[in-house]
Amino acid sequence: MTLAVINGNNHQQLRGVARVQGDVPADADLKTLVGNGYLVITISPAEGERYQGVVGLEGDTIAACLEDYFQRSEQLPTRLIIRTGESEGKPAAGGMLLQVMPAQNAQPEDFEHLAALTDTIKAEELFTLPANDVLWRLYHEEEVTLYDPQDVEFKCTCSRERCADALRTLPDEEINSILEEEGEIDMHCDYCGSHYVFNAMNIAEIRHNASPAESAGPLIRGMTG
Fold this sequence. Notes:
single chain, three-stranded mixed sheet, CBS domain Like, elongated, Helix Hairpins, Hsp33 domain
């Protein structure tokens, strides 16, 4: 695996892509997949400067690497449980994140106690039980506050307009060369598989600041995110 990227926002909208070379063994561990790679987390707040943290992929799993990141970069004790397998004959995955809130004065032994309880969760329980039942089974002797759930969904931010903006940054010579060789410019989104195709007329409209969406019609092929 040469690259794995996940984009997300505070609305629980996610998109991701992974690039691999050759076949991936079914039992491959993280070191086999990525070698001596790095975990990069970038946070872009609505206000203020963008923040980026980088740690080496030194753990045996992605969960362990994320725990290491939070401990080093945020100084927040973190336990991340990820379970994968099958449920009713279909691939399934589930997870839990246990983390000390920044403003809390929790004692280390309190976190270790809760982490030990969380480690007992079984894959089948995560796959099949409602969140209320999972929390009750794990922490029925603790004080728990349950907030309203938020749905997690795939959402891609690509669009024909954004592709047109990218084309505006390219030299005319480069665009003309592609049009002469290919007859059109096909821009592909690795996240959702969409294709945005621009012919010579579309490029002329872009150069004159016209909206390429007006002539999109059948020139958009593939899935939309």
